[in-house]
Amino acid sequence: MERKSQSILANFGIPISPGSRPSLPRRDTSGSIVGRSSTRYSVTALYSIAAEHDVEVEDDLAKAQRRLRELKSRISAQSKKNFVLERDVRYLDSRIALLIANRMALDEKQEMESHFEESDQQVFAFPDNRKMNQYGNLFFLLQTEPRHIANLCRFVSLTEIDTLLQTVMFTLYGNQYESREEHLLLTMFQSVLSTQFETTSDFNSLLRANTPVSRMMNTYTRRGPGQAYLKAVLSDKINTLIEHKDLDLEINPLKVYEQMIKKYEEENGSLPPELPSSVTPDVAAANADVKAIIEPRINMLMDIANSFLTIIIKSIEQVPYGIRWICKQIKSLTKRKYSDATELMICTLIGGFFFLRFVNPAIVTPHSYMLVDGMPREHPRRTLTIVAKMLQNLANKPTYLKEEFMVLLNPFIESNKKRINKFLMDLCEVGDFYERLEMDQYVALSKKDLVLHITLNEIYNTHALLSQHLDKLAPSDKNHLRIILEEIGPSPAQVPRIENKTVELPLFSRWETPIQDIASALMSDNSVTQNDILYMETKSIFVQLIRSLPRMAEKRSINLAKIAETAATAKDAALVRKGIKVKEMIRELQEANVIDRSDGYKLMTEEVALEIVHLGNLREKVNEEIRSLDLVFKTICDHNNYLRSQLDSYKAYLLNVRQQTSKDAIGGPGASVVKLGGKEKTQKIKVLGPYKFTHAHFERDGVIVDTNVPDNRRHNIFFNITSPVPGTFIIALHYKGREAPILEMDLKLDDLLEKQQDNIVSLDLEYVQLNVSRLLQLLNKTFSKRKV
């Protein structure tokens, strides 16, 4: 690369020698500058960032960068849609299970349609400007101070974590390829992991239990960069394996024995006495024929696992930076928390994340990660599961309590242990990003259009969780988080899905002054002078001019004075402004003795030429990244189609269950439209009720568990229960002599079933507390047998 750079510089007429070569900043793998020789380089990255977003430059690089940014934005948006779809599939799956288990499985079609009706993704104005500003302040604080989200993750329950993760991973830090958001997200991970290490007393349970932290790590690996890595590294290997549909590599002796006697019985009609139909695992393992079947399979499995391991180890440079950085934090925290931890213990924890949370799920279910077309057949699927277990046992300390037969694969463990440990330790060899993040924060504070696209329910849910745990998150009255939340007030209720619009939330900080001029902000540090800023800005403008004047870039030498004059006399007004400006800047720099006209502005000329070389290489990298991300985007879109088809199948199945169990509720006045096989069919649904129950009746049957109604008024209280559509019930509390009810509550069957499943005993009706299980029994008895 250096020889190529020198060759291009020579074409510009610039002599390169060890003594004259400019001292450029050296960067680590994360892009941070290491060992700066000049304070000027502290702002070089800032002007490079600005140049990348320069809308006035229209060369091939600018167009490629624009296309890359658009592609990354689409990937981020599509990833969020997939996450939401996966949650919907799980929701339907749980609802089907509840409805099948309940004999009162009536048709809640209208309620379910409203739940799954697509939200209008058109951005619309937030209804209250004051609230918009308050929420903009809140989410800027959450985004730029990740410790608040990290602390919140410690307190939320497993039932709440998915909704929070959706907001954090795909909205708050949703731009998966934007360095500032990615670095802030990783900073949050560092805090979460640090807390996990501090609060976990048992080393062996670290990062293994199903906790909000482990769920966070799983979700992080499913983002675009992780998906791209899995597809690039594993897809071909898995597809090659599943082509052998009939290759059976089962090594569980009991299963092998069962297959063997089944085949013998099919061929001979009966079994000999020495082959009983049912045996223990030990007897099966001791059978000579079973041993003969398993032995060659062991060798094949070790060969296959070795091929997977080799390709994974060779791919270390392709592993996304964020995943490697998390491995680095696990290593660092283990050393700090457990001073006597061996390298083997450290590798066990890193392997628990890299393989258990990242690689192995994709090997076991490649269709879910869109690495293969369709679900693999039974035998390849079993082979992939065994291979994943082999890799997991290799990365972790193997245990064979549940599957003793896996001990047969110990030679694979013994021969590869040093190899895998070296790989896991090498994963941690990445640089930090804190200096780059500091620069990113300068840029963020200077932006006037920093916005977050977020749904109303994401705002309200985050608000509710923060308020719920505010005393732990912000115990001090002076804490910024507490001040903001107390000003906003109580969190609004979640809105129906159809009303869950996306808003454009402008982000700002009321405690940090927005930076109007990055240069002024940097100059507040005495190590960066006005001349440093002026030098970098001048160089940046010359680079833009050369990119905007292709004929200048084609010349064999760079003449800064001529470039400035050409731009100043061009027909393009933007070029003229820049040309005049840069001529004045050169004059100021010369008067300050920063550059010298007599040597043709040698130092700046060399640095401009090097920047052009860098941009040339950058264009190749950008185009290569576009090609790679095009495949990622296609994969994510394919996965979206897969999820949608799965969702449609679940809906159709759910509709079929309801139709079979709610025939008695169909007929009479009212109608609903049901889509069957692509055709619309109108079915009339009768409103059932109202059915009247007295306060005494509810008390006698145990439906009322507590009441605030005075004794002398209870005989005047009664309840009317109506079912306007199957699965929906309206309970109205009435007082004799009054036409209108005192209060009404709209209940969904799903909600009641879920409360019962979660052991929630009572339902608050303001004046009375109702027993959930007894209420369900009452509704079953009242409505399931009503004939039309």
Automatic annotation (TrEMBL):
Record-linked InterPro entries: RasGAP_C, RasGAP_CS, RasGAP_dom, Rho_GTPase_activation_prot
Q: Name one GO cellular component term.
A: cell cortex
Q: Name one GO molecular function term.
A: GTPase activator activity
Q: Which PANTHER family match?
A: GTPASE-ACTIVATING PROTEIN, RAS GTPASE-ACTIVATING PROTEIN WITH IQ MOTIF
The record's SMART domains line, in alphabetical order, gives: RasGAP
A Pfam family that the UniProt record links to this protein:
RasGAP
Specify whether Coiled coil is a keyword of the entry: yes
Record's keyword terms, sorted? Coiled coil
Start and end residues of each Ras-GAP domain: 180-396
Which residue stretches, if any, does this entry annotate as coiled coil? 54-81
Which residues does the annotated region (Disordered) include? 12-33
- Taxonomy, superkingdom: Eukaryota
Q: Which species expresses this protein natively?
A: Funneliformis geosporum
Kindly provide the name given to this protein in its UniProt entry.
Answer: 2684_t:CDS:1
A single GO BP annotation from the record? Answer: negative regulation of Ras protein signal transduction
Keyword check for Phosphoprotein: no
